[in-house]
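Cross-check.
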Amino acid sequence: MKLPSACLILTACTVAWSATAYAQTTQPVVKFPTEIEFKAPLSPGPQTAVLYGDPAKPGVYVQRTKFPAGTKGMPHWHPDEWRTAVVLSGTLYFGVGEQWDESKLKAYPTGTFYSEPPKTPHYVWAKDGEVIIQTTGMGPTGTTPIPQKQ
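Predicted model, tokenized:
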């Protein structure tokens, strides 16, 4: 096969593959409220519902987390390359640091947007009632607890 023909075939294959990949990523994703299923936690605590992507894999994901009233998320961090969140309902109390300190908690009411740089130690509290947040991040994600001093 001559070099120009090989280049033409390679270009055609690349364009076809790119068009296929592009078509797959431009399809709308719609989740109506009645279709969002929160996964029950193994123990009392937050429930999550994945809306887009896979938080366990590399790439963008969107998930909702529901904190029952009174739930405390003790100090922890996430490995995401970047991570943002919006408080959809309730008031989330959010503190930064490796040790739980109620004096450092700030109230994030419904509508608040915030971001977390990678591995930022923080803690949360659904002090006043149920809280739902929506997180968008670049996975893979996870939660690494920070041991508390007694």
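Residues 70 and 126 are 5 Å apart (CA to CA). The radius of gyration is 21 Å. Passed to J.P. for a second look.
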